[in-house]
Amino acid sequence: MIPQAVLAGVTAGETAPPAPGANPEDHTPIPNAVAAIESMLRQPRRVLHQLRQPQSGRLIVTMLFVAAVCSLIYGVIVGTFSGGTQLWSAPVKCVAGLWLSGVICLPSLYIFACLSGSQARLIEVVGLVAGLGMLLTILLIGFAPVAWIFSQSTESVVAMGALHVVFLLVATYFGMRFLNAGFSAHEDRSGGGIKVWMVIFVLVMLQMTTALRPWIGNADTFLPAEKKFFVSHWLDCIKQ
Amino acid sequence: MSATTVKAQFRHIPVLLGGCPDALKDWAARWDTSRLFGYALVIFAGAGLYGAAMGYWRSPVQAGYDLVKFPLVIFATAFGNALLNGMLAALLGLNLRFRQSLMLVLMSFTIAAAILGSFAPIVFFIIWNTPSLAGQTEISLATYNVVQLTQVVIIAFAGVAANVRLLRLLELLSGGRRVARRVLCAWLAGNLFLGSQLCWILRPFIGSPALPVEFLRPNAFQGNFYETVFRAIGHLLSS
What we know:
With 240 residues, chain A is mainly α. Helix content of chain A is 69%, strand content 0%. Classes of the chains: A mainly alpha (240), B mainly alpha (239).
């Protein structure tokens, strides 16, 4: 049987990370959005512990609010490449895309968690997804100055699109680490199901970038008239 | 049935999916009408939603038909083979009452339906990103293959997960792997045999753009699934 420490990503010879709640600081409630952001970056176990408490609804709403605001801000940065209508449509699509990806994938995450033997309740799973979204969007804000500089200094739509996708994938990686840590603390028998779900979530997000195009560049309509899978769309863009 | 009872039954679904051996063994041993009702609700909701997502590719009307037909295939298979499954279990060395074997089969179908239902939003999202079949007589092969492959992978995953849980439960009840495997194989053979024909009768689930959207084809009760497969093999070999 694989020890829990190894499942949580700790190699042999290292001590296992303490469980959420083991540190007395984890028990301090998270009162507002600023505290939530600080805790997510510096004390993620505190967030995980608070999500397991009975009154975690307020924290979840706070995280969703932070994710929405950060998405809006990053969306404005995305829209500065083309300007015009993209300055409002890109932020709207950022928020909508993130929320839709989360909502579409949430039921399958809960099922995978149950199949893996996790003791997480549905509200805790919602909280972990909210945490993933918040950490993802916080990191995108961190990338925002870099994205803005590139968008002001290049005219290539393909290059800017690729850069935003890379930032999204890097931010998603850290969000997934938080999610994985959350499930490891819930005594999963195996992390295989959660890993499969992570792949599904990334694929849904990548497809969402195509379903809600254009993000950069201009178009006559808010949403695309033609339906495409994201690989086909990217290949078409590269060929142009 | 009170709302509290229904709520309690839904709380059992994570336990069912997690495969807690003591709880499942206890549930399999006792006939509980409220739990049966809970399973029926999950099967109807999960399989129905998945069927609707699948059928939406053809049209919203097809989605509505599949909302009913997909769970109907599952219920008809479970109840149609109930007597046979009960008898086979006893003959193969697992001493189960008729109600217990029916409960076990329904539990495994409930697991599969819960998994399918959870993937319904993803399937709907994929279908939404695919050109609709309505009004088209030609669909690109790549698009068709992507949708087809996605359906196969998801349905196969749900089936495998449900049968792995069922196998573990049969091992607990029989006290041995050999008897459990024989019973599972026998039940699978019977359910696949009947289920295939029921899918044939209740077709279409997606449908062809060249044919109208119908609940059942006019020739639903003429011919059968296996005849069609043999004819197709014959044509392939003779071409």
